[in-house]
Amino acid sequence: RPATSAKDNVASIGSKVAPSAAPVAPAARTAQPTPVAVADSTAVRADRSRILGSESAPVWVIEISDFQCPYCKQWHDSTFAKLDSAFIRTGKVRLAYLNFPLTSIHKNAQLSAEAAMCGSAQGKFWEMHRGLFDTQSAWEGLADPMPAFTTVALKSGVDEREWNRCVTTHATAALIDNDRERVSLRGVRSTPSFFVGDQPLEGALPWVAFRAAIETALRKAQPPR
Questions:
Q1: How many Å apart are CA 202 and CA 186, to the nearest integer?
Q2: pTM here?
Q3: Residue 206's CB: how many other CB atoms inside 10 A?
Q4: What is the spatial distance between Cα 134 and Cα 161, in angstroms, rounded to a whole number?
Q5: How many domains, in total, are found in the chain?
Q6: Domain of 162: which CATH number?
Q7: What is the pLDDT of residues 24-67, one digit of tens each?
Q8: Which of 10, 45, 91, 128 is the most buried (most CB within 10 A)?
Q9: Quick one: DSSP state of residue 180?
Q10: Do 140 and 68 meet the contact criterion of CB atoms below 8 Å apart?
């Protein structure tokens, strides 16, 4: 059965404007989404494109992250590729990203999130995800990181004019704000944080621990015999 056991949990932490990255629980499917989500096609496209993996994957993993967070980069560098190879590409896990920019300590966190989500509006979220973490040390201290973000965006394959318009008008800011609000309501206070199925995880855990959590979730997702 596709990702059933995780859906209630994902719905409870998901963005209010998320039609797909935070799938609603079955009982909530008749609820009306936040009006801004319906009206703002940019936000809708951005939301849908931050999902990676098969729709039939039995386990959801939710990554709650900040592109300027050094521990988020550590997790990305050490674990993301292994997760992708072992579980996402094999159809076992579906990954969704939720923004939690720690703006009180990371001055470029909000703008980097908007840069990524504007890339997501063009179907390039995961390219931006990789590019922003790969170049974090180059832009984290900049007074004006936009040239660095533009370089990442162009390398990710976006249409520059459309992406720049999205960023300068803050077209995805409401989506990011709703991410932050919902994960805060679930008690998330730091990055990176994760939900693997129904299990919360905190910090840049080593691959062996992350893999064990996924394998446990996969066992729970198996239908009873």
A1: 13
A2: 0.84
A3: 12
A4: 23
A5: 1
A6: 3.40.30.10
A7: 322 222 233 333 333 368 888 999 999 999 999 999 999 999 99
A8: 128
A9: H
A10: yes
